[in-house]
Design brief:
The chain is 29% helix and 13% strand. It is an alpha+beta fold and 448 residues long. The strands form 5 sheets. Strands 12-11-10-13 form a 4-stranded mixed sheet. A 3-stranded antiparallel sheet has the order 1-4-14, with helices on one face. Bound molecules: N,N,N-trimethyl-histidine and fe (iii) ion. It catalyses: gamma-L-glutamyl-L-cysteine + hercynine + O2 = gamma-L-glutamyl-hercynylcysteine S-oxide + H2O.
């Protein structure tokens, strides 16, 4: 979002907000209407909420922040606040709560949405006004919140046993030049602007913009593929203790990690389960469903390392010709289906080398979309960080416990995929749509 004058509020900015909310709701309904009440209230994995919890939680957050706080409207269902407070009840305990049944949950989110759209009609997006409404932030925040839960619900779908209920067209094939791409791209040494002060819908953890000096480095042109990951497995990578961080080794042994989640071997063939279907592991696709420890071990096995968060963002945003940071690898224009694999348009990553139109100035491809990419970095505050609008969105997660993921996967909408967006999770998590790419320091002569 560029800066908007109040006079522009009624047309462009409001229709963008309305469209983002509508897109999120279409996904939410698509992910919940395809299952029976029984499947919606079941817990498919102790890692996840019942889908009906996500559904009503989406509505409750919209009621709390958009309808009540920003809109100043009276509470609709204050009795639901405690039930759907993510901090009060860990995911594993949520099935035992007196949750709304699927139909009442649908009614509730619908009633909240009617009020949310009324608030939107009357809102003043004046950038100097109420910070929740400025540039339509709260509408963007709730669209992003819903889309993030839509991705979480997609992960629940992937964990669920039983026949497939979701369908989507196949992603585009790799273009003819994919096989000949250089393995890595050089990003020259120098400063770049990380984070943002000007993106109206950026969340608190993406702010403020600050200059970071990054030494020259080489970055994989594309995410690590299943074929490459299979070489690591075949070379005994899971048993190569020297490649694993000490905590990673402990976790590997306790959890019995031998391959990405959802993979198994039959004879010489590796198979995987994907949204209720069994298929051979496709060799040219970015690896997905690996934890941070596996990504880190692979990188060490390859004689490389994971990129830092700053290295990832510089590759994705820095335009050396203009000396400025872009919103996306390809420029500032919103993603189209030619740029990136986003929005659950396809239910798998595209082959490595796809989306040439989405390439960064360095030549790196698929930085946005396809798979989240683990970085080497802990989730921490940028210098000058201020929690907004609540500490529990980001601040309480800062620290060495969580690793940053960048780029967004096929499962997230463009409203949560931009060069500055930061995701985070525990280094043991594998149910998220996470892969990675690797990096190495450039030698002094290569600094560019
Ligand atoms: C940013 C994806 C880690 O799912 O826990 C959802 C997003 N925050 N509701 C999460 C979020 C509050 C968050 N992640
Ligand atoms: Fe939430």
């Amino acid at each position: 979002m560029t800066s908007l004058k109040p006079s522009e509020t009624p047309t462009s900015a409001k229709s963008i907000a309305r469209a983002a909310l509508a897109r999120a709701r279409r996904r939410t309904l698509a992910l919940t209407e395809c299952l029976t009440d029984e499947e919606l209230t079941a817990q498919h994995s102790p890692l996840m909420s019942p889908l009906v919890w996500d559904l009503a939680h989406i509505g409750n957050q919209e009621e709390l922040w958009l309808v009540r706080r920003a809109g100043g409207r009276p509470a609709l269902r204050p009795d639901l606040d405690a039930l759907y407070d993510a901090f009060r009840h860990p995911r594993a305990n949520r099935p035992a709560l007196p949750l709304l049944a699927p139909d009442p949950a649908r009614d509730y989110v619908g009633e909240v949405r009617v009020r949310a759209l009324e608030v939107l009609e009357g809102a003043d997006f004046d950038p100097d006004g109420d910070p929740l409404l400025a540039e339509g932030f709260v509408f963007g925040m709730l669209a992003q919140h819903e889309q993030q839960h839509d991705e979480t619900m997609l992960a629940t779908h992937q964990l669920r046993a039983g026949p497939a209920v979701l369908d989507a067209p196949e992603p585009p094939a790799a273009p003819p030049d994919a096989a000949g791409l250089p393995g890595e791209v050089l990003v020259a040494a120098g400063p770049f602007e990380m984070g943002t002060d000007t993106d109206g819908w950026a969340l608190d953890n993406e702010r403020p913009a600050h200059v970071v000096e990054v030494p020259a480095y080489w970055l994989d042109t594309v995410p690590v593929t299943n074929a490459a990951y299979l070489e690591f497995i075949a070379d005994g990578g899971y048993d190569r203790d020297d490649c694993w961080a000490p905590e990673g080794r402990r976790h590997r042994d306790e959890a019995g990690l031998r391959a990405p989640l959802f993979w198994w071997r039959e004879g010489d063939t590796w198979l995987r389960r994907r949204f209720g279907r069994t298929e051979p592991v496709p060799l040219d696709e970015p690896v997905v469903h690996v934890c941070w420890y596996e990504a880190d071990a692979y990188a060490r096995w390859a004689g490389r390392r994971l990129p830092s968060e700053a290295e990832w963002e510089k590759a994705a945003r820095h335009d050396p010709a203009e000396g400025r940071s872009r919103r996306y690898p390809w420029g500032d224009a919103a993603p189209t289906p030619e740029h990136a694999n986003l929005g659950q348009r396809h239910l798998r990553p595209a082959p490595a080398g796809a989306y040439p139109a989405g390439a960064a100035p360095s030549g790196a491809r698929q930085l946005l979309g396809d798979v989240w990419e683990w970085t080497a970095s802990d989730f921490t505050a940028y210098p000058g960080f201020a929690a907004f609008p609540y500490r529990e969105y980001s601040e309480v997660f800062f620290g060495p416990g969580h690793k940053v993921l960048r780029g967004g996967a096929f499962g997230v909408d463009e409203v949560v995929a931009r060069g500055t967006f930061r995701n985070w999770d525990l280094p043991i998590r594998r149910q998220i749509f996470a892969g990675f790419r690797t990096a190495r320091d450039a030698a002094p002569g290569e600094a560019g």
